[in-house]
Amino acid sequence: MEHFTLAIFLYYMNGNPQEAKVWFASENDCWSVIMDNKSFYEKINAHGAWCEVSDIPSKVVKPKIRPW
Predict the structure, then answer these.
(1) What span, in angstroms and rounded, lies between the C-alpha atoms of 12 and 29?
(2) pLDDT value, residue 2
(3) What does the domain layout of the chain look like in residue ranges?
(4) Looking at residue 1, what is its pLDDT?
(5) Which of 2, 5, 48, 68 could form a disulfide with 10 if both were Cys (CB 3.0 to 4.6 A apart)?
């Protein structure tokens, strides 16, 4: 089961530390954005980033409606 994952990016703006947080549907999606060379991480010149997995499922297997 996959869970929503929060990516946290640390960067500086005008000399002040800032955080950007972005939600993803899975941990793999989160890490692929952080590790990609042309990603958000590079565009904001971040100095740190990590992923935090939540306990909220992003994909839930739903039961099928049965005719009986």
Answers:
(1) 24
(2) 86
(3) 3-57
(4) 77
(5) 48
